[in-house]
Structures are given as structure tokens and as C-alpha cells.
């Protein structure tokens, strides 16, 4: 592996190449792996956005570049090279990678986030009028549960592939002590993954509260080093407010509950994020919005989803995907990304997160699901 994962890079002071030029070049072993990776991808029938946009020209332009954390193009693309069935196939090992490897990230961002071009600027954070959303399914016929999450990165720390074990532990400490100050409905407990029994962990995963373990896309991206060190989950008593620590992103802030009351779920999330933001600074980019490990999550970082049963529409999966796409929605399986639907339950959410406000990202899901329910009723 060519990049920062093998280095003791400090969180506060990224390694700078020195004046002698030492360490400014990508080493021969990394270059060799990059060439092999490019050839593997180019000769594959991978449908990933990585394959689509890593042209020979872009590859040659980027293959010798490095961020000041020491991250190379290999760190960005290795997940998609190893997992040819990736949808995207690329992660940013550190925030700088979005600039250094922009020739690859920008077209992928534009494709995923529906036209957010390289000269576009993500709008300022705006949660809008939180009283607007109501219950998507008051009779409880279709929507099993509703969830809205956003991601945040702690300012001063790089992403997973560049973190030391020490930093993981330090971040976990920061996150758990910050969250211990929350009150009212948000009051809860932090549970480190280290020392958690397998039964408790599996039950939390099965109930859709906790991230899964052993995600091969994240593993190949070097995002699971020192696991379970520094990883954990905070939740309130009712498990309607949860925070994941150091899985894909430094923080995933989540509000969820049974049924279709998006209004209640949204208001809880907005209150929580505002409270947390008062206490800890997060990485924000002038053009890209909030920074995350995966380019699909940049900008608002908001994924608003329902677990929904629409048996008539879903009788034809291709048709369901087609109708969902029409409303800018993404269909996932019951256990999240890269899983299948169980018992006819699909996870349907807003797809794009950039170039629109937090409010509009959630509204996209709200309006789209209302349409899907209408179509289901007419079938
Ligand atoms: P993320 O939402 O963080 O991008 P995943 O797609 O892996 O990541 O989903 C994480 C977990 O959240 C999974 O267990 C998934 O089943 C659960 N989940 C997502 N949406 C809902 C929902 N509306 N109701 C209940 N669980 C949900
Ligand atoms: C893929 O390319 O399919 C995986 N790397 C997941 C990409 C998008 N999802 C995500 O980050 N939540």
C-alpha cells in the first residue's frame, strides 16, 4: 500500500514533503500496483463510476501525485479495484485528496450528485422550516420505519486510512465525552465496540441500529485498521437518536423511529446536530460542504430513508428502480447498501446530497416517497 496507512502521520500536522525532494515521488512499488490496478479495472466489465472516469489520460495525470499526508491515487482507488462490483469504487484517504485527485473525483461527484459541476459551490447549511414535514403514511400501510442520518468529520483529523490507533482512541474519547453532555431526549450512553459481546453487537445490527462489521468495500479502502479500537455507538434509551463513531466516517448522527413520521425524525436530528455542533468543530470545505470519506456523502451528507413495503411496485424490481430514479431516489436492501430486500422491505432514500440544502435533500425523499405510495395505491 502506497500511502498514509503505513505512516505515523500526525492529525494536527500533516507530513510535508521536505525541501530536498525526499518523499515527493510515489515509490516504485506503489506505481507498479497502480499500473496493475488500472489494467485490471480497464479490462474488467465493472460498472463503477471509477471505471467510467479513470481514463488513461486521468490515470497518467494522477498516478505520481501525493497529498501532504502521503496518500496516493492507490489509496483512493484500491477499493474499486479490489471490488469490481462497486457502484462508485473510490474514497478520499484525507480531505486534500479531493483537490489533489480532483481530475478523478470531480466527474464522479458530478455524475453521482446529478450535475454538481467542478465550478459549482455547495450552498450553506440550511435545515429550513422543521415544521414542514408530516407523516408520510399516517395509516401505517406502507412505511415500516423512517431514518435520517448525516456524517461529520472531526476537524484536525484525516480519514480512516491515515489514522493511527492512538488517534482512533483519542477521537472516541472526544466523541463520548462530548455526547455525555446531551440532555433530554438526546441523553444516552456511549458503548465502545471494544468489549461489546457478539450477541449484543449482532442484535444491534439486526435491529438496524449499528453498522455492520467486515464491509469488504471499506476493508479494501484501508478503513478498518485497528478494528474495533476507537469504534462505538452512542444511543438514547429508546434508540431513536444514535451516533456511530469511527466506522466509515468519524461521526454518523442518526435519528430514526418506527412508522412514517418524518417530521418528528427530522426535528430530532436537527436539534441533535445543532447541539453537537455547538460543542465540537467539524471539517467543512468551501466548495464541497461537509467533508466525508466517500464522495457520495459530501455536501449535506444527508441520507433520509424509509423502510417501505410496496409489493405491487416491487413485483418488478427494475420498474421500482426506474420509478425511484425518476424522483432522484435510491433503492437499497433491508440491511442497507449492498444487501437484499427481506420480507419485501426496501430502504428508499434521497440519492444526491450535494448542490442542495439539507432541507431540500430531505424534501426530495419526502416528495418522492409520497409519489411512490400514490403509484402503489393506484396499481
Ligand atoms: P448509511 O445509512 O449510514 O449510509 P447503510 O445503508 O449501511 O448506511 O444503512 C445503515 C443501517 O441503517 C442498516 O442497518 C439499515 O438497515 C438501516 N436503515 C436505513 N434506513 C432505515 C430505515 N428507514 N429504517 C430502519 N433502518 C434503516
Ligand atoms: C461502492 O462503491 O459500491 C462502495 N464503495 C460504497 C459507495 C457508496 N456508499 C457509501 O459511501 N455510503
UniProtKB/TrEMBL annotation:
EC number: 2.7.3.3
Chain sites annotated for binding ATP: 145-149, 208, 252, 303-307, 332-337
Residue ranges of domain Phosphagen kinase N-terminal in the record: 30-114
EC class of the enzyme, as a word: transferase
Pfam families assigned: ATP-gua_Ptrans (PF00217), ATP-gua_PtransN (PF02807)
Region described as Disordered: 1-24
Biased composition (Basic and acidic residues): 9-24
Record-stated family: Belongs to the ATP:guanido phosphotransferase family.
Protein's UniProt name: arginine kinase
Lineage: Eukaryota, Metazoa, Ecdysozoa, Arthropoda, Hexapoda
Gene: LOC115876774
